[in-house]
Amino acid sequence: MPGDMRIAWRVSLILLMLAASRSSKASLAKLHILNDAIRSNQIDRLKDATTAGAKILPWNLRVEPAFARAIDFVVGERLATWTKAGGRASLQLTISGTAAATELEGIENALELERIIITEHAKKLTETRVSELLGERSAA
Asked: Hey, how many other C-beta atoms are within 10 angstroms of the C-beta on 112?
């Protein structure tokens, strides 16, 4: 079975995304954009979206039910808690979630490409930028 069809892959991605975000917190919209970029190989588009001064093109957000179930699992296992960021429903890592993410980061050869993408873009994908990508605020 391909990795992206396994819940462990998705849970690992969520933990890494949250760990790489400011304050270990990210909105659901941000998580879905990062997930969409990784799953549909839109890395160049994500680079454009996180480059300062780059023109913002709307992101047609695709919400995946399997990703949503993985989010529910992360919360259910108390690896993250619900909060708000930028006025949106968000997740923040708990102590055990931070420990799990740290453990994941220490595993060589696991999620190599995904970790590179997340490390490079998660902090740059601010909630303001997410709003611009979703057409909620006009780009400056």
From this structure: 9
Q: Which candidate, 20, 28, 90, 99, places its Cα nearest to that of 64?
A: 28
Q: Is the pTM of this model over 0.85?
A: yes
Q: How far is CA 84 from CA 73, 103, 115, in A?
A: 19, 26, 25
Out of 1.10.10.10, 1.10.150.240, 3.40.50.1820, 3.40.50.300, the CATH code matching 3-133 is 1.10.10.10
18-76 per-position pLDDT tens digit: 999 999 999 999 999 999 999 888 888 899 888 877 777 778 877 788 899 999 999 99
Amino acid residing at 66:
A
